[in-house]
Hints:
Elements: H1 28-48, H2 52-72, H3 82-93, H4 97-127, E1 135-137, E2 140-141, H5 142-161, H6 165-187, H7 202-217, H8 220-254, H9 258-263
Antiparallel strand pairs: 1-2
Helix pairs in contact: 1-2, 1-4, 2-3, 3-4, 4-8, 5-6, 5-8, 6-7, 7-8
Amino acid sequence: MHEDQASLIKTPPASLAQWYKPENKRQVWLHNMFKLRREMQAVKYYADNKDAEHLEKWVTRLSEHYLKIAEMVPEWEKKLDRETMSSLQQSASSHRYQDVSHAVDKLNESCKSCHTDFRTVTATMYRAPDFSAMEINPATTYKAHMKELIKQVNQIKIASEDGMQEIALSSLSDLTKGMNVLGETCSNSTCHKNDAKSYPDNTMNKTIISLEQSLRTGTLKEQGKELGTLAVLACARCHGTHRIAFDTRERLVNGQSWLELIKH
Length: 264
């Protein structure tokens, strides 16, 4: 039996992409979901408090945005519980508040079912960062630059352990320059465009100074500790936020099709 394993997940219809950035200027799908959540809360609240006037207002809004799901993604038409929505509207008009409350609970369970299948995958596909088109300059891709930073971190460790001080210091200098170039790229990105320079920050810069001093006069243990601290601050923390999400997105968006998998 082939040693490779395949994980199966449900992916949303391709038509959903038009309601997310970058295909759309606004996160239209998300805003519709936010409206539904708010409207369901309002309907539940006013039904429990037997407030007919406000209940009618929020039931109308809830119905509008609930049915909009099928307009936006026709493939999900069959997932809508139109019967429960119709029952909710009738119960509200007849002031049967308890029935309204029960209908909201039923709609909520329907929403949870769909979210279980698609919410995590959809958020990863359409909201996780996409670094694939980023570059340091026309001659250097983002990925190539990151690989070079990794090599420099490892070169510092190797040279430190083997007593090659000048090589270790030279590699640290190259790493520092590379980190600053990376920081400029981050500052020009959509995520950090309006932020003060976030990479490398003051803590990272202080650790670089401490590591340089340690490489000159410190023990092997001290050098390893300072380098480990810098690796956590400058590499692991950002990777924990960005790389996990990006790598997962790449697998979902650019993963093997069934045909490719069967051929393999």
